[in-house]
Amino acid sequence: MEHSYWWSHIVTILLGVWLPACNAQTTPTVRPSPSPTPEASEQLKFRLAGHPRKHNEGRIEVFYKGEWGTICDDDFSLSNAHVLCRQLGFVSATGWTHSAKYGKGTGKIWLDNMQCSGSEKSVSACKSRGWGNSDCTHDEDAGVICKDERLPGFVDSNIIEVQVNENRVEEVRLRPVLSMAKRRMPITEGVVEVRYKDGWAQVCDIGWTPKNSRVICGMMGFPHERKVNKNFYKLYAERQKNYYWVHSVACAGTEVHLAACPMEFNQDNATQTCKGGMPAAVSCVPGPQYTQSSSMKKKLKISSTVRLKGGAQYGEGRVEVLRGSEWGTVCDDRWNLQSASVVCRELGFGSAKEAFNGARMGQGIGPIHMNEIQCTGQERSIWNCRYKNITVEDCQHTEDAAVRCNIPYMGYERTVRISGGRTRYEGRVEVLRTGHNGTQHWGLICGEGWSTKEAMVVCRQLGLGYANHGLQETWYWDGSNVTEMVMSGVKCTGDEPSLSQCKHHKIVNCQKSAARFAAGVICSETASDLVLNASLVQQTVYIEDRPLHMLYCAAEEDCLSKSAAKANWPYGHRRLLRFSSQIHNIGRADFRPKAGRHSWVWHACHGHYHSMDIFTHYDLMSANGSKVAEGHKASFCLEDSECQEGVSKRYECANFGEQGITVGCWDLYRHDIDCQWIDITDVKPGNYILQVVINPNFEVSESDFTNNAMKCSCKYDGHRIWVHNCHIGDALSDEAERKFEKYPGQLNNQIS
């Protein structure tokens, strides 16, 4: 059996084992003693279960000796919860629950009278009555509430799980047969094989239906199945030695994993044949994103009324739907893998790998359009599923639903790596290049012009989340023997799946060719996401004629238009368009200035530090997109003005304090502070567009840059101004946006 690299790409999913409830008999209380340590071959697993719950809370369940079981709440404490939360991959616990708050579990109650100090690395080091020795019922199942912060490098497996009867089939692959198919990505057709012991086994195709194929294709990242040429595979099978472990598969077509389908297994000593049949083979239809044929791309349409926002990878993000002309989110009540799979297939991906609740991909803005969605899994669109309309009391954006879809394996990570960093999330970028003679070698990327956008592509390509920084010098990571610059002039939009799809010089042209000037990245599992309160801008806008003698500081900080330099200072005035800006961080990481406080610049005129050169662009534009007035604003102070309930302020500018915006908080720039304006002294009466862009130079990483711009319609008669229809750049449908402005959006700050 061949073992090519891409054969190792396997779709896996965490599967639960659900057993009948069995309540233990009451016995006298015994003194806790250290829990017997599981043998080396016995690996403990942990999960959160029950409902209703968020992703970081739930009934705690332990997998021991082949069975899932619960923990009794007798003697339970926050110290116990700390140990359990760390084993689940969270940094610590914030609380715990008793009396089966998240519902009663089933099966064993593995631990009772558990007592941890809080510093143990495993619950097996804590005192208890011993494994399986309990006098509790499932009415006493304990739960934990973990801090929503992951341990560095921990693989996130805490998902809304698929419930199956047996945990027997875990890994599935499509093995291509045609030599051409082996070289082409993605692999859309092949023999279905399941992991068996140390190898792979085939599935007997007797009774195999298109519904089975639909499940397999969904696992492999494809939205649809198609008819396969059975005659070809029959000829192939006759020349091969096959081992049939699985037969009589009977999927309904809505399952997200083959293991959730009814099936039968051959015993080790049973006849390993498939009399009258052959190995099951499947052919899948890829979504348009993964189709190389231009004619097929035109035929394959994806939904224009559903989208994913805020995810680091393709096929993941917060679910948003278009109703009328406005995008809105989906509430996570009853959100499950079936409903999530409808969204994934609708967008050209496979079935859902994970269904997230609790705003795991960040909070949305604007309306929440749908609640309590109930899909069967067969629907072509989420709009065809049963759902409830939202009332104000139903949901908050802290309950926004999200999804991670199965996507086709493309092998992108094989052509890039990072080296020299302290963790796997940082390092100097090295790319695989093929020479004229066909040999492959690793090489560096010139750091000139390297930015956050290029770093975003590298982090995505390696599956390392978001880009925290794109670095133009990497002398401190000089530990590799790779020294040749093989790529320069790299320019990405930030949306590409791999660096090879970004623009770059055909011939390497790098002024600083030493390895210390090679490009580097720092990636992160989470990122901030800033968004402006559009309605507050509309409510607070007004015009002020401000005397020049009160604008010396503003002139020093370049907050007035160029004609101000020719004014007769200190006489006369400037006409200012003022408004308040309230900037929210709705992401999953704090927004921090790129520069450390040691490099902040002191401005004596106002008595404050600048932590970023430019934090926002304020512009007034004509209908054809040319700028008639501009007013850039340096971020002289980034701090938490107010926060959501339950969120504490972290950043304050006073006394040279740390600057930033905490997740769930917002920074308010009142209309009456310096530079919170656009100088419109030279603007003639007319109709205009007011535009505000946050983080315009992409200096700081965010999970979503498309919501950084806000636009309003303006009418100015020379004395008064009317502002209406203020909205975030991606809040409206394409058609509504075209009606709003008859020119493409402009994000630079240059006057035409």
From TrEMBL:
Swiss-Prot/TrEMBL catalytic activity: L-lysyl-[protein] + O2 + H2O = (S)-2-amino-6-oxohexanoyl-[protein] + H2O2 + NH4(+)
One annotated GO biological process: collagen fibril organization
PTM characteristics: The lysine tyrosylquinone cross-link (LTQ) is generated by condensation of the epsilon-amino group of a lysine with a topaquinone produced by oxidation of tyrosine.
Record keywords, A-Z: Copper, Disulfide bond, Glycoprotein, LTQ, Metal-binding, Oxidoreductase, Repeat, Secreted, Signal, TPQ
Domain SRCR: 46-147, 172-285, 306-406, 416-524
Covalent S-S links between cysteines: 72-136, 85-146, 116-126, 251-261, 331-395, 344-405, 375-385, 492-502
Molecular function per GO: copper ion binding; protein-lysine 6-oxidase activity
Source organism, top-level taxon: Eukaryota
Enzyme kind, highest EC tier: oxidoreductase
EC annotation from Swiss-Prot or TrEMBL: 1.4.3.13
Subcellular location: Secreted, Extracellular space
Span of the signal peptide: 1-24
Cofactor: Cu cation
Cellular component terms per the entry's GO annotation: extracellular space; membrane
Pfam families: Lysyl_oxidase (PF01186), SRCR (PF00530)
InterPro entries reported in the protein's UniProt record: LOX-like_protein (IPR050912), Lysyl_oxidase (IPR001695), Lysyl_oxidase_CS (IPR019828), SRCR (IPR001190), SRCR-like_dom_sf (IPR036772)
Purpose of the protein: Mediates the post-translational oxidative deamination of lysine residues on target proteins leading to the formation of deaminated lysine (allysine).
Family named by the database record: Belongs to the lysyl oxidase family.
Protein's name according to its UniProt entry: Lysyl oxidase homolog
Gene that produces this protein: loxl3b
